[in-house]
Write a structure and sequence with these properties.
Layout (H helix, E strand, L loop, with lengths): L2 H5 L7 H26 L4 H5 L7 H24 L15 H12 L52
Helix pairs in contact: 2-4
Length: about 160
Amino acid sequence: MGFSQWYLRRGRIDRRTWWLQYTLPLTGLALLGLFADLSLGNIDLDAVAAGGSPYGPMVATVVLLTAPASISASVARLHDRGMPAWWLLLGLVPYVGGLALFVLNGLLPGDAGPNRYGPAHDGPVAQHPMFPPPSAPPPSGPSPSGPPTAPPSAPPYWG
């Protein structure tokens, strides 16, 4: 998987991928940015203790640069559960929205089989006619002299 495929994820991902390839590395980058801000004196701990913002320029830069990867991973994780990307708006609800998205993405399992967003990566894909396994022979269709067939439509990405 290349950087562009990691940065803007499509399809479905399981919980393990969400944790190991997105949540933990992006959290680590944010912590490194926080330590960089602390060591450069960009954050005043007394102001943070008084209710000020703990985000300095390094943390803000890391968050802005990794936001597309974080959002696309959350969308792919919601798609794995059969839910549209509109569920990301739940994160706008103060206090409980972020916690609900964390539970939906990080703790609950995805759909075992194919859903409208594509095949499951570890589910029973072989019996679904729309998503044959990669090693399956091509479907028998009209002969090469017959009319051309239209390519299958891709599943919707944003729900």
